[in-house]
Design brief:
By secondary structure, the chain is α/β, with parallel strands linked by helices. It has 15 helices and 19 strands. It starts with a strand and ends in an 8-residue tail after the last helix.
């Protein structure tokens, strides 16, 4: 039972109920869980004698570990594709799908490749202060489910991050070769829950059920997954919504909006979180708030795809829980969650300056908000009883000299978003900006080697 003292942060932003900020604060973690937060914990009788590790945090600004509430890790194999650089969502989806399918058919996109790529993007995330990732893997060839999600779970364990494994789907896609049946999807979801889901506090792996969207999935799937989730504590529901293509398709097929479709199939409830939500009808925002659903805000891919800004302030005014995500590297080109906060701070600066998102609001979304999206009251804040997940950045670097407000400076300055210190479940995994238990260069080399594997006749 390890006991770790993180001592003397320049500033500790807890994001607890009171949004407490502590100058010179300490965090004492005992067996993965935060035991105490305060000033001078090392001076208390017996503390130094009982800890296994003391980390000097002078010069650092500390937060709860960042939470990426929407990611597609496998898309780390498809960054900066020239043919997809300047295309709208329809051609983009078709183009990406063709690339992934061709790789699979050439025998170059098995579970081993997906696992290696996932490990690389998770390592990138970890070095950037992200301690929990919600990954939606939705590419599956027709037929029995391949072990892509299982390989991603193994990668997360090796890297040392928490994973919400969101089993994505395509059950009504345009290409039958990469479209699964509802029965095959539901059966695989049930196996993933049985084999990997931990619904208790401190879970390192949870499973979520995550159809790609109302425009590419069967109505029956949404109903069956809602019923399956209801039978298991901590199994969330997740999907894309209002990403510029689903509204027209939904109206044509079902004579309703995407949100009305979700409500009709049991998804308008707490435990559901939605990605993008770029252009919802205004009245539906209040309906979403009343239903208790959450939203993962994805400013970088929304801009990258030419969609513009989601109505972030309107979400917050309505009382919707908002987290942050990067989505996959095919439409963001990276997993830099902190960098995306800076982008959000800038892109939402329109109208009354008092309504522009502040650095503290954005950091709250990327920590406590992301935890709430995932149904985790044990993450996203630094308080006794919460999980010992901490990320911290060095404010003494040359690119942060002259910063007056450390939290505003964390969002708005810095040539790099890499963290100096990262702790997951009480385990120091990054210290001095260096990964402790893994070799990022070796992880990158393994992913590059997997992607370069020769074409085979099999799959």
């Amino acid at each position: 039972m390890a006991r770790v003292l993180l001592a003397a942060f320049d500033l500790l932003a807890t994001f607890d109920d009171d949004r407490t900020e502590i100058a010179g604060g300490d965090v004492l973690i005992n067996d993965r869980v935060i035991e105490a937060v305060g000033v001078g914990l090392s001076d208390q009788p017996g503390v130094l004698d009982s800890v296994d590790q003391v980390v000097d945090c002078r010069g650092l600004v500390g937060l709860p570990g960042l939470i990426n509430a929407h990611q597609h890790l496998y898309q780390g194999a498809f960054r900066a594709v020239r043919s997809l650089e300047r295309v709208a969502i329809g051609p983009w989806l078709a183009g990406l799908g063709s690339l992934v399918k061709a790789r699979y058919q050439a025998g170059r996109f098995g579970a081993d490749v997906v696992g290696a790529v996932a490990a690389a993007v998770l390592t990138e995330s970890l070095l950037g202060g992200v301690t929990t990732v919600a990954d939606q893997h939705y590419f599956f060839p027709a037929g029995p489910s391949l072990g892509y999600v299982e390989a991603t779970i193994e990668a997360a364990a090796a890297v040392g991050v928490r994973l919400h494994a969101c089993r994505g789907t395509l059950t009504a896609g345009p290409d039958p070769e990469v479209t699964q049946s509802v029965d095959a999807v539901v059966a695989h979801c049930a196996r993933l829950i049985a084999d990997h889901h931990d619904g208790g506090p401190g879970a390192m792996v949870r499973v979520a059920l995550a159809p790609c969207g109302v425009h590419v999935d069967q109505p029956a799937l949404f109903s069956q997954l809602a019923a399956l989730a209801a039978d298991h504590d901590g199994v969330g529901l997740h999907t894309h919504l209002y990403e510029k293509i689903d509204a027209a398709v939904c109206r044509e097929r079902y004579r309703c909006t995407p949100w009305e479709f979700l409500v009709a199939h049991g998804w308008g409830q707490p435990g559901t979180w939605l990605a993008h939500v770029v252009d919802p009808p205004d009245a539906e925002i209040d309906e979403m708030a009343a239903a208790g659903v959450a939203i993962a805000h994805l400013p970088a891919p929304d801009l990258r795809m030419g969609w513009g800004r989601a109505p972030l302030r309107r979400f917050l005014d309505a009382g919707i829980t908002v987290g942050f995500g990067t989505t996959g590297s095919a439409s963001n080109d990276g997993a830099n969650l902190l960098g995306d906060l800076r982008l959000a701070a800038l892109v939402h600066r329109a109208g009354d300056p008092e309504r522009w998102p502040s650095a503290r609001e954005l950091l709250a979304m990327a920590t406590r908000g992301g935890a709430a999206c995932l149904g985790r009251d044990d993450l996203g804040q630094l308080r006794p009883g919460a999980q010992g997940d901490v990320a911290a950045w060095d404010m003494r670097r040359v690119d942060r000299i002259g910063v007056h407000d450390p939290l505003a400076g964390l969002v708005m300055t810095g040539l790099s978003s890499n963290a100096s210190l990262v702790v997951v479940a009480g385990r120091v995994v990054v210290e001095g900006g260096v990964a402790v238990h893994i070799d990022p260069a070796a992880v990158a080399a393994a992913a590059a080697q997997a992607l370069a594997k020769p074409t085979t006749s099999g799959r």
